[in-house]
Amino acid sequence: MQQNQTADPQQVKSYLDQAIQAIDGGNNTQALQQLELAEEQLESLTGAESAEDGDEDEEEEGKEGSGEVDD
């Protein structure tokens, strides 16, 4: 991340727009790079790091018990 740039919500939007365009074009690698850049900008704006692993674990736990009923 470039330390001399200030965080800008418009830059986050630009990165996300570019990620969507990359996905539409089938370029998942470019999309991932743009998402990572957007994440860095968001972290700068909020002053917090994302909790990638924690969010995924919670989603999986919620799926395990859904739809099953014990008689």
Offer a few descriptive terms.
71 residues; mainly alpha
Give an overview of the whole structure:
This protein has 71 residues and is mainly alpha-helical. It has a domain at 9-55. 68% of the residues lie in helices and 0% in strands. It contains three helices and no strands. Helix 1 packs antiparallel against helix 2. The longest helix is centred in the middle third of the chain and has 19 residues, at 28-46. Residues 56-61 have low confidence and may be disordered.
Task: Describe the structure in brief.
With 71 residues, the chain is mainly alpha-helical. It is built from three helices and no strands.
- Average of the residue pLDDT scores: 77
Spatial extent as radius of gyration: 17 Å
Separation of the first and last Cα atoms: 54 Å
Please, how many helices? 3
Helical content class:
55-70%
The outline comes out as: flat
Provide the β-strand percentage band. under 5%
Secondary structure: number of strands:
0
Low-confidence stretches: 56-61
Please give the largest β-sheet: none
The ordered string of helix (H) and strand (E) elements is HHH
Could you say which structural class the secondary elements and strand pairing correspond to? mainly alpha
